[in-house]
Amino acid sequence: MDKAFKDVKPEEYDGLIIPGGQAPEYIRIYPELKPIIRHFFEANKPVAAICHALLVLLALAPDHPKGRKMTAVKVLKADVEAAGATYIDEEVVVDGNLITSRTW
After folding, report:
1. Are 56 and 24 in contact (CB under 8 A)?
2. For every residue of the chain, which 3-state class applies, written as one string?
3. CA 50, CA 47: separation in Å to the nearest integer?
4. Is the Cβ–Cβ distance between 71 and 93 less than 8 Å?
5. Environment class of residue 67 by beta-carbon count within 10 Å: exposed (0-12), middle (13-18) or buried (19+)?
6. Which active-site residues does the annotation give?
7. pLDDT digits over 21-69, tens only?
8. Measuring CA to CA, how many Å separate 15 from each of 11, 46, 74?
9. What are the chain's domains?
10. What pTM was estimated for this model as a whole?
């Protein structure tokens, strides 16, 4: 089922998966997505970000990456570090409720 971000009720979901590719470049500009992402971090629900998906987290939940360990596609290493996180060059990195992966 497709839903607009404004119609999503995050309390109805157990976790959030943000896929990579080009979509994160575009969806990070939607302010309606911000409360959805914040809900998952504040409720300590699982948040998974793959490849370029960290662009969404860094843009819409900038406080939550600080102090965390994460990975992403290598071209985002500087963005991760600028956000106050530690970039780990591994396939998958788990830091609390945040699961990140370099690529698919």
Report:
1. yes
2. CCCCHHHCCHHHCCCEEECCCCHHHHHCCCHHHHHHHHHHHHCCCCEEEEHHHHHHHHHHCCCCCCCCEECCCHHHHHHHHHCCCEECCCCEEEECCEEEECCC
3. 10
4. yes
5. exposed
6. 52
7. 999 999 999 999 999 999 999 999 999 999 999 999 999 988 888 999 9
8. 10, 5, 25
9. 5-101 (3.40.50.880)
10. 0.92
Q: Tokens for 46, please give them.
A: 């699982």
d(CA 9, CA 95): 25
In which residue are the tokens 């843009």 written? 59
- Tally of residues, the chain: 104
Which residue bears the tokens 């102090």? 67
Question: Tokens for 32?
Answer: 């309606």
Residue type present at position 88: I
